Prior knowledge:
Blueprint: E1 6-10, H1 15-26, E2 30-35, E3 52-54, H2 62-72, E4 80-83, H3 98-126, E5 129-133, H4 146-168, E6 174-179, H5 186-191, H6 204-216, E7 221-223, H7 226-237, H8 239-255
Parallel strand pairs: 1-2, 1-4, 2-3, 4-5, 5-6, 6-7
Helix pairs in contact: 1-6, 2-3, 3-4, 7-8
Amino acid sequence: MxxxxxxxxxxxxxxxxxxxxxxxxxxxxxxxxxxxKSLHELHDPLFNDTNYCQVDLAAADAPLHISQWLDAxxxxxxxxxxxxxxxxxxxxxxxxxxxxxxxxxKVNLHAPLQLTHALLPRLLNAKGKVVFIGSSRAQLPSPDxxxxxxxKMALDGFVRSLQIELKAANVPIEAQMIHPGATRTGLHGKAxxxxxxxxxxxxxxxxxxxxxxxxxxxxxxxxLASGERWLGSIHTHLPGTVESMMKKGRGRKNKS
Length: 256
């Protein structure tokens, strides 16, 4: 873990992002934590004036704001950037308003792309690694998560192309995509899911440990949910079978 001396994490105030921040803090990394909440709302000694950058990633100037914050602290090298921030909506696409869709696309897709572009020079200075947190939902048809899944699938496509670009240009930066499974975080409540439905999801600390282990590997893409990996493989060859399962699962959910 010595190479990850300076770690930047987006979406660091809750869920997986917060668990990752604590993981790397315990291992002596210098943290740069990015979140939407103001510092006075965060009643956790983990966050302070020298490691927390408040910004709404949906804002057009978010990458510039983060870059200027880094400049103010003379942080010109980033060993590890974890693009974790995300937002979601659960329900039929027709029931979601335009503003929700736009905000989700800005946070889940536009911000990671633009922030990567802005931070590449600092990653290059450290010969660092940029990690994108996707979702196992992106591996499968996802009724009631259509826009969310589409944003994560598009992000996955960007990372695949970025990996090829970096390798072809002999740029000493690693790019990795990690798709975690269902995790018990505040994201689901904000998206409209009943808390009882998340009771069997993995704890954020457990998922963060799995993500950190995957980051240590050289794998370009990792899916941490074994069930989704299995279904994804089946869907490649028998799409109708998996889609039928998704329809049945959605029907049971709507009846509950």
